[in-house]
Amino acid sequence: MPTTMYMDTSHIRVLVASTLSLCVESVALGQASTSAPAVTSRPVFQIAPEPPPISDEDVALLVKSVRAALRDELAGKPERAPGYRPPALRGVKQILHATLRRNGAAVADTETKEIDLIDGSVAAGVMLGRSVKGKKIVLADHGDACGLELEWLGPIEYVTATNDEKGKWTDALLHCFEPGRECIGVELNGRRGWMRPSQIIVLNLTPDLALQAAEKAADVQMLDKSRHAKDVRYFRFRTRHVWQADATVRLPVQLVRGEQLIPPDAVTQEALDAAIHRMGRYLKYRQNSDGWYSEEYLPSPDRYAPGNSAVLQMHALQGLASYGAWSKDESIATAAAKGIMRSAYFLTPLIVPKETSALTTSQTTSAPIATTQAGQVLAFPGHGDHLLVTARMLLSMLELGDRPEFVPLQAQLVEAVLASQDEDGRIEMIFEAPSRDLPENALAAGIAMQALASVAAKRQNARMEIALQRADRHYHRWYDQTVDSAAASEVIRALARGYISTNDARASDLVFRFLDDLIGLQLTSAETPWPELIGAIDTKQPGLVGIDTASYLLAMSDGLELARRIGDLKRVERYQWAVRLAARFVMQLEITESGAYYARSRVDSVGGVRQSPWNNIIRSDSGSEAVMSLIAARRALFPSN
Length: 641
What we know:
Distance between the termini: 45 Å
Number of strands: 16
Largest sheet: 6 strands, antiparallel
Radius of gyration: 28 Å
Shape: elongated
């Protein structure tokens, strides 16, 4: 897979328009571009053909036919002939894949040949029943309590992308299908193998693993690809994917990349409240008894992955604190405070040169340097990013208000952040001999500035105002040279918050400049044919979108509130729609009851947030960012409620 690239947001709109057109139109199909498109042109997407449409009522009939045939087979009754054939389905022939699931695990699955859909539904039910009996599995209810997953395979389209002369996959081949939306398949000498979109979602497959599995299914070896390169053909197709939780559900739900589609008009105050509560409660559930977090959960194998990241711990706790403050649920706030106070065991005095900052100390003198303590800093053993975790701890405390146990610690954290700023305004917390050659950690500095701005909004003092003004000047200069969109987003959030104290027009101008460019990267129906991706912010490779949109949603929400405060009505209108779309995409990443059809443990999955629409790993920091972003969107979109 190509390395992810971050681009300067001041130029990114032009770059993405050009790159999308070239990559999606040419690379996705393995074709050479004959001429470069104009940078103002819209990207042209070429996608596999859509499967024939099937109405909800006809889908319900097909599912009912599978259930009836399964029930008869398990009861030992003779196979019955297909019943009513809807006019819309007459003559429709497709391959049907059926999976019977119990508690997420596949009890049995089968796949028909390309036959009449009604006949196929009956055949699928019979074959499922035979598979269950063959495995000697007893289903007292004849499978009625099991979930039924059906997937109809659409028409095949061959791609022109191939392997290289040594039989290795090319980048064009690896990017010739849309993960979770299109299958990737291969054929050689009459042998075919493929990975359905649902398999790619459930197994969390990257394009290379999907290709590997397809080739294994077709028994295509490396030797075959090198000796018979012209005979190896790759193809793709789309599917229609439905899920029925049990036999009592009349209308099965249709899934898109494993989830039900959320339209933009569904982003209401009530829907946001519900999503925040689901994700927030999940974040609370994921907290361990000691107050800290397990890092990530994999729904399909039902496994928690080990990890030890101080940055993730503080990020997750910040989200829990934000939810506790927003929900006004004392049990949530107490849980967040427990994690914060456990982390406080690792607070360490920050020792800096006396009467100067940590970054302006001369290293040329050999004379002893007088030092003094400047507050305390979080220093987890074996972990860096001291500024980042310290700033997140401070923000978490501020979310929960003036709790008695926090009061003495907050002052120490503020002192440490202030002491980490040099005369130029740069903020960098270090323990060793300072050096201006260190790379600038603007993302951590942006979060630290947010903390200072939040403190200043509560308690105005001259020292805090000077620190914010210095930081504003420095990060204005830094912004014009950066190519890091994620760091820029955090800095912009700090400037938007700081405006409350500074009323600095230069800060608001830069906030709007960044957001105007950022919104230009937002996927709409004009930029993508995939409705589930609408609202995502595409700052990386074309179409490579995911949970990072939540971080940009935080910045856009702050920008919307700033535009409303200033009275910029045109931007208010534009930012409102952008925030709504981005919130829609973040909500789409949540794993819901229907989207957890393959999960072995519902309680460990439902309410969690996926990394992307095709990556179902649930990380604690991703859930935290999603919760915070939806809370910010809720406040920005519905300020009076």
